[in-house]
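Hi L.,

You mentioned the student needs an example of a multi-chain input paired with its predicted structure. This one should do, with 880 residues in total across all chains.
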Amino acid sequence: MGVKRRAFLIGGAAIVGGGLFAVYSADSSNRKRAVELTAKGKDGSFLSWVKISEDDTVTVYSPHIDFGQGSHTALAQMVAEELDADWTKVVVEHAPADPAFANSALGRGFMADMSGQPGVVAALPASFISMAARSMNLQITGGSSAVRFTGQSGMRVAGAAAREALVAEAAERLKVPVSELTTLDSRVIHEKTSASLRYGELAQAAAARSLNSDVKLKDRKDFRYIGQGVHRLDIPAKVDGSATYGIDFTLPDMRVATIMMAPVRGGKLTSVDTAPALAVKGVEKVIELEDAVLVIAKGYWQATKGMQALAPKFSDGGHGGLSTASIYAAQDKLNAAGEKLVAPEGGKLLTADYKAPFLHQAMMEPFAMTAHHKDGRLDMWGGLQDPLAARMMAAESAGVDAAKVMFHPMIMGGGFGRRFPPYSQIVDQLAKIAMQVPYPVKLIWSREQDVQHGAYRPQVAARLQAVTGKKRMAAWASDYAQNDDAAAEGTVPYAIPNFEARHHEYISNQVNAYWRSVNASQHGFFNESFVDELAVAEGEDPYTFRRNHLKAGSRQLLVLDTVATRAGWGKPLPEGRARGIAMVESFGSIVAEVVEASLKEDGTPKVHKAWAVVDCGTTVNPLNAAAQIEGGLIMGLSAAIGEQITLEKGAVVESNFNDYPILKLADSPEVDVHFIESGAKMGGIGEPGLPPAAPALANALFALTGKRVRQLPILAQAKV
Amino acid sequence: MAIETTVNGKAVSIEAEPDTPLLWALREDLGLTGTKFGCGISACGACSVHVNGEITRSCSVPVSAVAGKSVTTIEGLKGEDGTLHKVQQAWIDAQVPQCGYCQSGQIMAAVALIQKTGTPSAAQVDEAMTNICRCGTYPRIRKAILAATGQAAVAVEGAA
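Structure written out for the whole complex:
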């Protein structure tokens, strides 16, 4: 995904770069800037990310946005752990979208992952990586990275370094050796004399001390907060309507705009008679962009009525001949050119074609952001997965110097990969219209525009081939056609002597982006369904077949065995029900799932119960981690059962929740989630729960009906 | 034109075109932004409010239709002393919300269901709770509804 691409870039920068002295001085001015932005009066600011105020409030500045994944609370737990903070006085805020808050820990994590040389990356000076992160505006949320990278290499270090400085300051004031001091609940304590000092009274002086960047982190056995299912800090405001999302933001004299974009992506606005919209009460202005028309009015309803009065004409950019079927046909052709496997004597060759459609993220809050251009300065408010990059993009679109653009990150009604600035057309649209009006303006996309102008999960076709014999996989070759190389997400956890996955590039007119779990959902479906086919062909139980290809004592085997045990694999089920199993490793976490399903009277699938077993190394907040796995599994089922974005004449057919069906409560199973706390390198939690859901369901349906699902979604295929 | 109605127990006069959806009158004219825009076609339930106690998807009801009626939004669920409604408390206890965007609507739907049924059966929950949650919080919504109704009838009597 994009974060990886960008990580390659910083990898490159790290090799080319030099001049450590310059880096260090850049870093100290950078820290000064961070303090200016966040600290006031007697506040003490530590490594930009932690602020301790005079009243003992600990503010954690998260460079990640939280669109529901709960990482803000988890990051705060990690700071509080090392800091020995009083949890009741910990708050989290979005870090300002300023280069001073670019996320160096994320840069380090991705660089280590991508370079394949964690040792080399670990040896680079922190300031160097921080500069690289700033130079690429790294404030990304994605890749299930917040806790495993930012938390592990950033927040815990910041907490520990701050604690060390607080203790040093206290030692000086109490005139006792550091070794006699302990810390608990935001106090430094000298047990011998029962003297103690509050963090709040030490903070300002402590923050001025030179911080140790090579601090010792706590042992697992000493954790007080990490591993606890503490309640999320953001939830109270989400049950009483007081949480303010981007769409809720308002300013005095603000107007509201809505938009209609060229129905065929790549098309342009050719003509529009603006008069009918301007005749609608409340409408103030119609703005034409290259590929869209916008109506600005007093409120959203008037803007919508104004838009309905328009009949803009758009070109199709030469893509009018494109359809879902034509894309699959082109992809099939590419895959068919792949080299054929040959089965040796006594071996079996199996070949199967799989297909997965474009998918829409369908975040519940449609795109909505506000901007105000005044006195040469452009302010923007809203929620995106990389506030810093959004700021830079807005500056470019508006033609304003980046120093005069401020992006104010707000909480988001979901994202699931939709809110990466490079694919968030709203930034460019809003920056442009804000420059043309004297008042603040909020741009709200209708749900129809949201569905039809998405940044979709790529449509993929794959041809899978395998040679089996004696209940073993001997060789595997897959050809798949899509926009991007999915090598990182196309692997299987099984020991197969010869494994090859060949990418064939296919580019449509659609923007291919990041749908929760990126390419792991399509390829997880292909691979784990095909493994099931191979098990059946070899006359082996699908669970046993899988376990026979896993190393004894491996984490994968434990995950698979545990889910089978918890789900009662092999035990009799009521008539008309069957189980399916699948395991996918993604974003550093191993997840196996079992789904128990039946068919409803109308022939559509019903999932009764699901089990998920996860090894992500360590869970910081098991209660929230379980929520992420439950939600990921349900989103995976939703997509598998009913979701697809299809094209006709180059334009998207679906338009709203009536024809893009999201799974509802009645069709959602109870999910049994279990974590194996292996202590291995920390993996992600927001995405890995999703990929096994589709193949587990498809495999259950095969067990039930004998029909193999090779194309998603299941409902669309059932209708044919 | 001015539409006279009651919102969260207070008489209000809304200056809006009569065909303005109640959702936008609440959000933009009254500043009650806890009620969310999700789809505009009554398909997702993010905009759910109570009109005379009935669960209503406010994106598809013109503001003129609530003249003289009583509207309750998420902001009106708390007690006068600021105490959370039992259903809101159950939502916190079960740690239901993720992104949280749909939860105002989910809570309004759950409160309406509990007011109507007292102790809803699993089938009643399935039938009534048709709002979309993209984060997939459904298992915890079920759990929270059970918890809220396990705490005797006080939750129902105390409801807005």
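You could point out the following to them. Chain A touches chain B through 65 residues (CB under 8 Å). Confidence is low (pLDDT under 50) at residues 1-27, 113-125 of chain A.

Best wishes,
N.
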